[in-house]
Automatic annotation (TrEMBL):
This is FtsK domain-containing protein. The chain crosses the membrane at residues 51-68, 80-106. Residues 578-754 form the FtsK domain. SUPFAM superfamilies: P-loop containing nucleoside triphosphate hydrolases. Keywords: ATP-binding, Membrane, Nucleotide-binding, Transmembrane, Transmembrane helix. It holds the Pfam family FtsK_SpoIIIE. PROSITE patterns: FTSK (PS50901). The keyword tRNA-binding does not apply. ATP binds at G597, Q598, T599, G600, S601, G602, K603, S604. Residues 448-478 are annotated as: Disordered. InterPro entries: FtsK/SpoIIIE/SftA, FtsK_dom, P-loop_NTPase. It comes from Dictyobacter formicarum.
Length: 817
């Protein structure tokens, strides 16, 4: 009921669809500079203590001389003492003056060097502040939060951060659906905040010297160390790669299952915002108990049912069902759909798809919620005795119950084991690690790990308590980062170091509903069909497309577009990349051709397409068919009833029948040459020979007759199309010089492909897609196309019934049946 209410609100909220075009991405610059801390200055030494000793000795000498002069009666010799007293005084005064001058000079020099060093540290700090801010801002712009965040925290301090819900959801938004499959961050989404080393580098080449002179520059060295400690790490979004690290398991034991589910909601929301539904589709498998938690996603375009055979526009018109399976019944209906899509992708991989270096699109994200709550799974039933179930029984009685989590179902095996190759990511929620898939590549563990207290000594406990006291002084920085909330473990054979998530992303249900409602009306602009179609209906190749229920042969037979004034013989045979029609011009690129394709490649279908395209567009008085099948097959025999067909030979394997056929060709060529000399017009005769190589082996004389016709075929209106499974050396020997266009479907070997189209590409065509091939024509022009398929009985009946009308309208003798 809740899901129906949400859809009702969505219908009332939804406006006309907004088309979102692909934008050119503007990547933020993230510096990888190296910032070198300034070298500590070498301070000049203070004046030597020997100067003070000289002053002291001079003063002592002057005192001694003064004492002798004043207290001792030396007579006339006392006058000689006065110069010594003066000299000692002058020496003391001069030494003192010199000492003071040197002291002041050295002190000034020391102050200047320290002041300059402090200024250099401040300049480096300004550079680090700018680099630190730029890096944090760049990563936040690439991976902003969905809705809520604490802007006062040190994580977002001084940053211009806008949550995704505040962005405009229109074509002017540069980040909406901006990530493309070739981008390095395709399917990389944030799960929270981590602290990691900065991209730029802080280089301190004088670290040892700094320690040696720490007694002189304690405060300055502490300043330099604080710069390294503050700016060497940054708080940035912690991102995981869903494409390369699948399956990804989120383990939330106990009450933390709520946080784990909110994290899963946030991951899915980021995928839906950053990736177009043309590139990513989301499948949800959840228990009925979590209907409220997942009902919001059932309206976004990424969960629209995907069909590889249809374009996005056709899917929107055809399907209104979303791949949000909630409850065991819906999950059991969705699992076969997943299995079929995985099987289709495995077939494409088996056809050398990886060698073409193109990923399978859209990328599938399969989200599996925890199925271990009461009532989440169907109760297991004891096995019943083996019995035949009548086909009239309803399907729901034959459906197996969902008694284990979808992650353990066999339908999910390919996604879990080969998800990387199949472009499938699996995101699952578990309540303990024993529920994780065995092939998990990444684990987000919300279980808190604490070492036992016995491992901590008393000194370590005291140090830990002192750290806690210091942390209390920085309340702003610890308002958000309170500790490790989750640990991200790589589970590869060569595991990477564990990454610590300091804050997990989360999203409330109201934010999720708002996000889904704003995303619901958006549609991606599909400029062209990037992948070639695998199924092409011949009736859709005409303009306007043919409606077989109201088909009238005379509409196209009398259309002057295809004859100006003579028949143009330009027919559609399939589609190229981008839904461009592939034409075969039998006048310009003919008249003779070769068709090669091994068993199962669609050779017979292509022959039928060529025949019926000609029959659609041209009258029996303009085009005739002579059909020869060396073996007993039904590919050409089905066209015997067409009014265009003047002859149909099947199982022409005996030399007598082959000789009869050759005689008939010789007579027809002679007749046409005589009519041409009389100036009469004749219908173009298309001679189509299936299994031509086998016929040539049986009767080599047939080659000479055919080559004679090929030389004059354009003048007398005779066209030959030779079909074979393998070239068998006939291309290099004789036929190569006589055919003008070559149709090459899948070949058995690269050598066969090179014989036909001069390249080995036809050997790599997918075996699972019959009708895929190459057309070599003109001046060595090569086109890859998907041939169209036909529906024979109805068309033949219509054309056969039109034969009598055609004769009466044209009043011309008809040479056919």
């Amino acid at each position: 009921m809740g899901m129906d209410m949400l859809r009702g609100v969505a219908m009332s909220y939804q406006q006309s669809s907004s088309i979102i075009t692909r934008k050119a991405r503007v990547w933020p610059e993230i510096a990888e500079d190296t910032i070198t801390l300034p070298t500590p200055p070498t301070l000049p030494n203070l004046p030597q203590s020997s100067t003070l000793i000289t002053i002291f000795l001079s003063l002592a000498g002057m005192a001694i001389y003064g004492y002798v002069f004043t207290h001792l009666d030396t007579g006339e010799s006392s006058v000689l003492i006065i110069p010594f007293i003066a000299i000692s005084g002058l020496m003391a005064v001069s030494s003192l003056i010199m000492f003071l001058v040197q002291l002041i000079s050295v002190q000034r020099r020391r102050n200047y060097l320290l002041r300059r060093y402090h200024e250099q540290l401040q300049e480096v700090e300004q550079q680090l502040k700018l680099l630190h801010w730029h890096e944090r801002q760049a990563y936040m712009e690439l991976n902003p939060p969905l809705s809520r965040f604490e802007y006062k925290s040190s994580v977002y301090k001084n940053l211009d951060v806008k949550p995704l819900l505040q962005y405009p959801y229109n074509d002017q938004n540069m980040s909406l659906w901006a990530r493309q499959p070739d981008d390095q961050d395709f399917m990389r989404v944030r799960i929270g905040i981590e602290k990691r080393p900065a991209t730029y580098t802080i280089h301190d080449q004088q670290c040892e010297e700094r320690m040696a002179i720490a007694t002189h520059l304690d405060s300055y060295n502490d300043y330099a160390k604080s710069l390294i400690k503050t700016y060497a790490h940054v708080f940035v979004p912690l991102c995981v790669d869903l494409r390369q690290q699948s399956p990804l398991s989120i383990v939330g034991p106990g009450h933390k299952i709520v946080l784990a589910r909110e994290l899963m909601h946030s991951i899915v929301s980021h995928v839906a915002y950053h990736h177009s539904p043309e590139d990513v589709r989301i499948i949800i498998l959840a228990p009925y108990s979590q209907e409220t938690a997942w009902q919001w996603i059932s309206i976004i375009p990424h969960t629209l049912r995907y069909d590889a055979r249809l374009s996005s526009t056709h899917m929107e018109e055809t399907f209104q069902e979303h791949t949000c399976a909630i409850g065991t019944a819906a999950v059991m209906d969705q699992l076969p759909v997943i299995s079929r899509e995985l099987g289709r992708r495995e077939l494409l991989l088996g056809d050398n798809r990886q060698q073409q270096k193109s990923s399978l699109l859209p990328h599938l994200l399969i989200v599996v919620d925890a199925f271990d709550g009461p009532g989440d799974l169907d109760p297991s039933t004891p096995p019943l005795p083996t019995m035949a179930v009548p086909p009239s029984h309803p399907t729901q009685y034959r459906r197996t119950r969902l008694s284990v989590s979808p992650i353990k179902r066999p339908e999910m095996a390919l996604a879990l084991n080969r998800g990387n190759q199949l472009s499938v990511s699996v995101l699952c929620l578990c309540t303990n690690q024993s529920q994780m898939p065995q092939t998990s590549q990444l684990l987000i563990d919300l279980d808190e790990e604490k070492p036992p207290k016995t491992l901590l000594s008393n000194s370590e406990e005291e140090e830990a308590s002192s750290k806690k006291k210091r942390k209390k002084t920085t309340k702003d920085e610890d308002q958000l980062i309170a500790g490790i909330q989750a640990r991200v473990h790589s589970l590869n054979e060569k595991p990477q170091p564990t990454r610590h998530c300091l804050q997990l992303d989360s999203a409330g249900l109201e934010d999720l509903r708002s996000f889904a409602l704003r995303l619901q009306s958006l549609r991606a602009l599909n400029t062209k069909q990037l992948e070639m179609r695998t199924q092409v209906d011949l009736s859709t190749l005409f303009d306007p497309p043919l409606d077989l229920n109201t088909y009238d042969p005379f509409v196209l037979w009398n259309d002057p577009l295809f004859r100006t004034p003579r028949p143009l013989l330009r027919i559609p045979i399939g589609l190229k990349i981008g839904d461009e029609v592939q034409y075969l011009d039998l006048h310009k690129d003919g008249p003779h051709g070769l068709l090669v394709g091994q068993t199962g490649s669609g050779k017979s279908e292509l022959l039928q397409t060529i025949i019926l395209s000609l029959a659609f567009l041209y009258k029996p008085t303009e085009v005739n068919f002579l059909l020869i099948n060396y073996k007993a097959g039904l590919a050409l025999e089905s066209f015997c009833r067409l009014p265009h067909t003047i002859g149909c030979f099947s199982n022409v394997s005996s030399p007598a029948l082959i000789q009869r056929f050759v005689t008939m060709l010789r007579a027809e060529a002679t007749r046409r040459e005589a009519l041409l000399k009389e100036g009469k017009t004749m219908p173009s005769l298309f001679i189509i020979i299936d299994e031509f190589a086998e016929m040539a082996k049986c009767a080599e004389s047939v080659l000479d007759e055919l080559f004679t016709i090929m030389r004059v075929g354009r003048e007398i209106g005779m066209h030959l199309l030779l079909a074979a499974q393998r070239p068998e050396g006939i291309i290099g020997s004789r036929v190569r010089d006589y055919v003008q266009y070559r149709l090459c479907l899948r070949c058995a070997s690269p050598e066969d492909s090179r014989e036909v189209i001069r390249r080995t590409d036809a050997a790599d065509l997918p075996a699972s897609i019959p009708g895929r091939g190459y057309l070599l024509y003109g001046d060595n022009q090569l086109d890859l196309f998907q041939s169209a398929r036909v529906t024979l009985p109805f068309i033949q009946d219509q054309m056969a019934n039109a034969q009598s009308q055609l004769n009466s309208l044209l009043s011309l003798p008809f040479k056919g049946k």
